[in-house]
Amino acid sequence: MLYDYKCPQCGKQTEAINKIADRHTNAPECHGKMQLFISRAPYAYMPMEIRYVCPVTRTGITNKRQRLNVMAKYDLVDANDIVTDKSIDRQLKRKEELDNIVASNRPPEELTKQVNKWAESSL
Ligand SMILES: [Zn+2]
Q1: Interval 41-88: pLDDT, tens
Q2: What pTM does this model have?
Q3: What are phi and psi of 72, to 5 degrees?
Q4: First-last CA distance in the chain
Q5: CA–centroid distance, residue 29 to ligand 1 (Å)
Q6: Sign of CA dihedral 91, 94, 96, 102
Q7: What's the CA-to-centroid distance between 36 and ligand 1, angstroms?
């Protein structure tokens, strides 16, 4: 990995390639060992962590908190959170199926099975 280092005494900056495990112990020398510092956006260091690029900001979204912050800042809504007639119908149908199972006094395994089926179908 490519790391940025800075001398704590004179402020000189340099880049060096190091293994993750050696990034501190194998730091370049200036007035003693230089210290790691972050000069770029963190995701530049971890390209594999980018899950997707936000279509609004064009930045890589790497985690849930960042995603929530961007959504709040730009007043965005998750498509999965939009309630449609279809999703209401589906929930009503599920409630009916559940009520039927409860009313029929079938064993609890039936309920578990049904709930698992719903969980799979909504993936
Ligand atoms: Zn120095």
Answers
A1: 544 444 445 577 787 888 788 777 888 888 888 888 777 677 778 878
A2: 0.34
A3: -70, -45
A4: 36
A5: 8
A6: negative
A7: 13
Between 10 and 17, whose confidence is greater?
A: 10
CA distance 70 to 41: 15
d(CA 9, CA 6): 9
User: What does the pLDDT average to over 80-98?
Assistant: 79
